[in-house]
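Rotation project, supervised by the postdoc (A.L.). Task for the rotation student: set up a whole-complex structure prediction and record inputs and outputs verbatim in this book. Inputs entered:
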Amino acid sequence: MRAWHFAERPEGEPTLDSFDLRETERPTPRHGELLVRVRYLSVDPYMRGRMRDSESYADPWDVGDVLRGGVVGEVVESEHDGYAAGDLVTGRGTWAEYSVLDADEAARVDPDVADLPAYLGILGMPGRTAYFGLLDVGDPQPGDTVVVSGAAGAVGSTVGQIAKLNGCRVVGFAGTEEKTSWLTDDLGFDAAINYKQTDDYRAALDDAAPEGVDVYFDNVGGPITDAVFTKLNLDARVAVCGQIAHYNDEEVPTGPRKLPLLIASRAKVEGLLVRDYAPRFDVARERLERWVASGAIDHRETVVEGLENAPDAFLGLFSGDNIGKQVVRVAE
Amino acid sequence: MRAWHFAERPEGEPTLDSFDLRETERPTPRHGELLVRVRYLSVDPYMRGRMRDSESYADPWDVGDVLRGGVVGEVVESEHDGYAAGDLVTGRGTWAEYSVLDADEAARVDPDVADLPAYLGILGMPGRTAYFGLLDVGDPQPGDTVVVSGAAGAVGSTVGQIAKLNGCRVVGFAGTEEKTSWLTDDLGFDAAINYKQTDDYRAALDDAAPEGVDVYFDNVGGPITDAVFTKLNLDARVAVCGQIAHYNDEEVPTGPRKLPLLIASRAKVEGLLVRDYAPRFDVARERLERWVASGAIDHRETVVEGLENAPDAFLGLFSGDNIGKQVVRVAE
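Outputs recorded:
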C-alpha cells in the first residue's frame, strides 16, 4: 500500500519537501485493533505543531514516521469483538490506504446521518472543538455578540451556527467573498468581514459589532485578534482555540500587548484543547448529530481527490483554500 | 485648608507639573455625608489611569479638580445618623486636609486591630484586591506554585502570604535586596527574584519555580510577565491585577504574543477589578482582620510625611520607592 511519511522538518511555511509517499507493507492489527481501508483522511492545522521538534500538546512526529491523522474508513479486519469487517468507523489513523485503529478510540459512523466526510468535520474533532470551546469557554448568552476568526473553517463555521442557536449576534472573519457569502447567506451569520479586503479590522468591527464583543472565538491570532481585543465588552470571554497565523513562525511573534486591556474589561482569555472534554464527547456528538439531521446546522467539506494530494490539501490550510472541513478522499 | 488639584495631564511619566497645591474652602457635608479631618491618604498606581483623558474603569480626572483617593481620618461633622464627631473612618476622599465622605461608602476603623495606615493597605482596597484576585481568579491549590510580580507592594505582599496560608510555593519579583529579603525572611516567600539584578527572568524562574507556574498574580506586566507565561503549567491561572510597567506608555506597548502559549497549557488569563467583589467586602475584611490580628499575615506601610509631599509619594510608586503600602501622613 501507499503511505505518506514525514521526510523533513520544515522551517517556516511547510512545502512538499516535508512529505514522502512510499510503498510499504499493509499493517497488521493486534488484539483490540482494527484494520481499516481508509476512505477519507483529515488534514488539520494542529498538525503543523507536530512537525516541530519540541514537546507540545501533541507529540512531535519523528522524521521517517508515517503521518498520522483522523480517518473514516471501512473495517477490513477486526481484532475487537465490537466490530466486524464491513463496519464504517472513524478514529485516529494514518495518511495511508490502510490504517490500524485502536478500537476503543474508534467510533461508528452512520452514513444515513451524514456523508462520511462530515465525520471528520462537524461530527468529528472540529465539531466537538466548536461545541465545547464555544459553550464551555465562550459561555454565550442570548443577545451577546460573538466574533469568530477563521469563520469559514470547520471549527469556525460550526461555532457561529451554535452561537446563532443560542440567540447571539454572530460576526465572522474570512478571507474570500465566497466564504463571507456562505457565512451570511447560508449559515445565518449576521455579518462577515473579508479580512483581505480591508486593513482596518477595528473599523470593520465598529460596523459589524456596534455593541462590542462579548465572546471571541479565536482560530487565527495576529492582527484580527489584536483588533477584536480592543472591542471586548465587560466580562467578555475569549476562547483561544487556534493561532494559525503563527503556526509557521520560527521566532516568537510579537504584537500589541493585550493584558492591559483585560483589566478594564475584566475579560477572561482561555486556551482550549478538545481532548480535555473527552468524557463528554458523547453529549456533543448526540447534539451535533441532531442539529445536523434536523438541518439546524449546516456543514460543508472541501474534498481533495487522492491520497497523493494529501500534502497539498494540508498546505492549502495555511492559504485558506478550504471552505468548511478540508478532507482527502483516499478511496470510494 | 490645603488641597491638591490636578494641574495638567501628563505625557508619559508624570511629574510634579501635574499637581497644584491650593488654599481652598473647607467643604461642607450634605445629608448622608461626613466631614473628615484626613490623617492618612492613599496613593495608588491606578490613579495614573485617571490622569488620562479617556474612559476606563475609573472616570478620568478633570483638569482643575481636587485629586481623589482613599483616606483614613476622624469625623469632624456628621450628617449621617450612624456616625458622630470623633469616629475614625475610612472611605473615598480627597488629597486634602479635610474631605467629605459618603457615609454609606465609608467604614469604621479600629486602631486596636491595626494602625490607621493599614486601613489603606492590607485592611483596605489593596488587601481586598489581593484576597479576591488570588482566591477567586487565581484559585490556588495546595502544592501549587504561585508567582507574584510587584511582590513587595501592598497587593503583592498580601497575595504571597495568603498563598502561603493556602499551602502554595510562593515566588515574588521585586526590585531591591531590601524588598526581596523582606519577602523571604519576614513574609515566608519561598523565593524572591530581584529583577534589577538579572535580565534572564526565565532562568531565574527555572531555579525559583522548578515545577513551573500554576498561578501568576500580575501587578506589573512587561518582560517579567513575558517570562512567567513561558512557564505556565497545565490549567494555570493568571490574574491580571495591574500593569504598572505600562501605565506611563503613550503608545500601545508591544511584546511577545502570548495567546499561542495558552493553547498547550489551557491556561486562563483574567483581568480583575476589586469593586466587582463589593458584595463580599465584609467577608474579606473579616478574614484579613483576623489574619492580621493573629499575626498570620504581616503588613508594612511606607509613610511619606505631609500633604505637601503627596505627589512625590505618588511618583515614587513608578520607581518602586515603596515597600508595602504607600501612604501620606496628612495629620497626626
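Student's summary: Chain B has two domains: 2-121+300-329, 126-275.
Supervisor addendum: The mean pLDDT of chain B is 96.
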